[in-house]
Specification:
It holds the Pfam family Dodecin. It comes from Marinicauda pacifica. This is Dodecin domain-containing protein. By secondary structure, the chain is α+β, with helices and mostly antiparallel strands. It has one domain: Flavin-binding protein dodecin (Dodecin subunit-like, 2-Layer Sandwich), CATH 3.30.1660.10. Helix content is 22%, strand content 57%. It is built from one helix and three strands; from the N terminus they run βαββ. Strands 1-3-2 form a three-stranded antiparallel β-sheet, with helices on one face.
Length: 67
């Protein structure tokens, strides 16, 4: 039997939502062990001078706790 925890993080990218998700997952894996999944809670686009400047995702990362 395993026990998991969920933590919420935000990540950004000037390229796309997919790139922001990758940034967030890559960063989570540097700090957290046993990352098992993520849920995209929210997506936002920051606009500057009428153009998309940055894509932001708020995500919940699920990771299993060590025994």
């Amino acid at each position: 039997m395993s026990v998991a925890r969920v933590t919420e993080i935000s990540a950004t990218s000037p390229e796309s939502f997919e790139a922001a998700i990758k940034v967030g997952i890559d960063r989570a894996n540097k700090t957290l062990r046993n990352v098992k999944g993520c849920w995209i809670k929210d997506q936002n686009v920051m606009i500057e001078n009428g153009k998309a400047k940055e894509f932001k995702v708020n995500m919940q990362i699920t990771f299993e706790l060590d025994d």
